[in-house]
Every structure is written in structure tokens, then in C-alpha cells.
Give the backbone structure.
Amino acid sequence: MNQRKFFILMAYSLIIIVLIFLPRYVTLSQGKDILLSTEPSIPRDIFRGDYVILNYDIANVDLEKIQYDYDFLAGETIYTVLSEKEKYWTIDSASHKKPVIKNEEVCMKGTVRRENANILFVEWGIESYFVPEVEIMDSEREIGNVSVIVSVDSSCSAVIKQLLINGDPASFK
Amino acid sequence: MGEDEQKAWIEDEAREWEKDGIIDEEQLKVILARYDLQDTPAHRTVNKKDKTSDFTTVLSILGALLIGVGAILFVASNWGEIPVPVKLLLLFGTTYITYFAGWNLKYKKRSNSKLGDALLFLASILVGASIFLSAQIFNVNAEAHWLILAWFLAIMPFGYAFNSRSILTLNIFTFTLWLVIYMRQGIDFPDMFETFMLYLLFGIILYGIGQLHRVSEQFTHFRELYQGYGLSFILISYFYLSERLPWFVFYSGPTSFTWKAQVLSIIFMVIAIMLISKSVLLYKKDKNNKYELFVLILAFTGWLGIWILIFFDSKYSYYYDTEYTMSQTKSILVTITYIIYYLIFFILSIGSILIGYYRSTLSFINIGMISFMVGVISLYFNTGYRLLPRSLAFIVGGIILLLLGWYMEKKRRSMINEIKGEHKV
């Protein structure tokens, strides 16, 4: 194999990796920050180590309390419009298509995992926050009131920016 | 034609073959030495050197594997002392420097191709570690199936580009792992039935791809790898299905197939049919391919049979039924299903042994022997011992298995010795 072919191959694999993570980088740097309330628990991923499972308040969507276009089925994509209430951002409406939003609103895209009596369990793709292994036990003891700053972009994608414990940025150094 | 003329003809032909790329320089020397036209190459006469070389390869690959696993664990520890940008630079830098070093040794300097091969394999594992590190930084959800798919895609062409069996194995491993995680994601109590139905098709596809390599001059050595993995997937799936299928028939249908399983089944089925069609064409050109074609058709027919049983015959898809109906109609169906699928399993196991013998491929013989023995043990415990007092059944069973094991091992060794004998000639 000659040098040219080798470098083309290397570029190929690098492009694949960059293409996968570039949208997340763009969301993180260009998106609008919102604060979400969550309840944590801590398991382990075999490839990436310890992480905090974030069970957001917005994971359970009660369709009787918000506006929506028509019924959702498990596996479907759900678009929601969120606005800031007293402290946290919560869902105002849900739809199957990307909604038009006002300046003070954001939209978030997720997947309906289960539906039960008009309550949807939605996965937003921001349910894991990875932490260093050595800190896991300390953080488990300390975890009290946990909230998360999430960046949301115009295409309704969300990426975790910062985990807050009792209102302060969680530090694991 | 006199002896000298014959030798001259062979020498001319062999040199033409080498020029056309049919054989390499080393093989040319061995052929010429056979007819006293040249001295035997030194490394051919000393068999120990071959073994040392194989040992070096195994050590290098295992070393690369250990370093790669270490790198993944390093990522998983999420060590906070190193800043994120340094971690990224460290891992991506190491990955591509390792690729470069491997390429340099194997292709540019050609000084140590085995170490080069091991480094290329290591770098392909490090690609995975780099993806997991990036995913950790962006807090991508745990068990996200597409990370494994990304790993598979990022190294997909490297097995062929670097002519590496170990990278090709990693490709098959990553795809299999992706399939498992993808199928289980979002399901609280996953049913392994649909996963094994897909594995069966996946095995057929791998076996069919291996068959295609018979006609490839450059990559014909990948055939054994594909067909070995293909056979393993086919046999493991049939073992599982022959155990579970009667249970489904008697008590209930399997849980309904998810849309993901249905879409993947259709895609895999189309690919499998295309590969079987290609194998039929290969068989028409060369009748020696009949055994492989038989394996492909039998394995696929069994898959199709299960699909038809589960989805198109209402007798099998009843979730609840009355005792009377089950005992009157389903007990016969259970027995028939059990016998048919165990038969397919055993025919494929024996087929694997015979193909291994016919093609002088040890791995096929081992796969066939192991699956045959597992099948016999399973069959014994599922049927025979219920008819005897349990203690007696275990004693008799133990003696039967010991005798069977002794006989199978004896048979296996004699087959291996025969094959080795053929190679030495």
C-alpha cells in the first residue's frame, strides 16, 4: 500500500469520527442554555466507566396537562416546546413535527419509549453524565438537589453542558 | 517428453505463475526446489522457524489486544488529572501514530510485517477507545448502540486495505456487538429469540461472503475466517432455536418481533438470498462448491421454516390455548418441530466436519465437533434421563459421554493428523 492510499484511509476514519461528534460540538457551542430538574442514580458503562443516570422531570410527559397534535406511540419521535417557569424549564406542548417557537422558548427532540394512560416516558439523549471513577462514592453520598444545564440548538437537539449539585457546578477533580 | 524437458517446462510455467501473481516468490522457490531446480529455501527446511514465526504473530496480536483493552479501561476510568484536550490529543495522536508505525513496518520498510500487522490491529482498537472518549466528553447516553456502529464503520475498510485477518475479526466483532446492543436497546425484557433469528441470517451472510472469496485471488485467505465465524453463528443459533422453538409451540408464541428486528430481518434476508444466488452460480461453474451451497441452502431453509411457523400458521401463534387443544394437536407439532430442528443442527455440524476435512480446514472440523458434542449432551439431558431413575441416568450418561468423548477425540486427532500429513506432502 502506498503513502497516498494510507493517508486517504486515515482521513476516512477521522472524518467518520468527526462527523459523528461535530453536531454535538455545534449544539454545545451555539445552542441556548436551559436548566432542567432531575433525579440521579449511578451505574457503570463497560466502555466509558461510571456515570450518573439523569431522570429528568420532563422524562414523564403528561398529555392531559399540555397541548399535543395527536396520540404518540412507543418508538416515535416527539418534539416539545419548553419555556422557563420559576426556576426550571418545563414542557408546554408536544407534536410529531418540529414546532415554530418564540424567542423565549426552545424545542427539544426525544423518543417515546413507553406510553401509559396518556403519560409518555420520553428519552432525550441526555440521560448520562460521565464522572471519574475515584469520585463515584463521594458523589453518591453528596448528591442532593441535582439539576442540569443543557444546550439546545435550533434543530431541537440537546447536549449536557453542566451538572449542578445544590445549584453549584459539580466538580469531580 | 524427457525428464529434463519436463523440468524445464515446469520451471518456465512456475516463473510465469509468479510473474502473473498466482504464486509468490517464496512459493516459486519451494516448487523449483521440489524438482531439484533450486535449493530449498532455508526457512522451509527448518520447520521450527515457521513455528517461531507463528508464535511471534500470536504474541504480537495478543500484546496489541491487551494494550487496546488497557486503553479502553483508561478511558472508562475517566481520570480527572488530565485535562480533556490533552486526553483527546493523547488518544487520537496515539491512534494515528500507531497506524503510521504499523504501515511503515508492514509496507514501507517491510522490515517486520508481523509487528506491523499487530500495530495496525492495535490502532483499530484505539479508534474505538477514541470514539468512547469523545462520547464520554459529550455525555452521549450510555449503551448508545451507534457508537459501536461508528467504530465498525471507521475501521470497515482496514481489514482489506491492510490485508489483516485480525482487523477483519475486529470488524465482525464490532458489528455483532452493535447488533446485540441495538436489538436490546429500549426493551426492558428483551426476547433473545428474535436476536438469534437475526444471528442465524448473519451467519448465513458471513458464510456466503466467505464463499465469494473463493473466486478472489487477492483475498482468498479470508474465506476460512468468514466461513468459520459464519458456521459458528449458524450452529449456535440453531442450537438455541431447536431448544426454544418447541417451547414456543407448546406454550405460547415468542413475544412479537420489534420493528427493528423486522427491518433488519428483511435487509439480512435480501442479502442472504443474493449471496445464495451467487453461490448457485459458483456451483454451476465449479461443482466442488456443492457442500458449501448445501450448508447455505439448508441453513436458510430452516430460517424460512421458523419464520413461516411463527407468522403464518395460526396454530403456532396462539398465545393462550386450552389444555385440550394443546395436548391433542400441539404435542405432535412439538415433537415434529423438535426433531426437524435438531436434525438440521446435527446435519450442519456433521457438514462442517466434512467440509473441514474436504477443504483441509482444521477450524471447520473443530467447530463441527464441538457443536456435535454439545448437541448430543443437550439431547441426552432433554430426553433420555426422564425415562430412568435420575441417579442411574447420570451414571449411564457419564459413561456414555466419556466413551463418546474418547471416540470423538480419537476421530478428531486422526482427521487432523491426516490433514497435517497432506500438508507435509
Remarks:
- The first helix of chain A runs from residue 3 to 30.
- The mean pLDDT of chain A is 85.
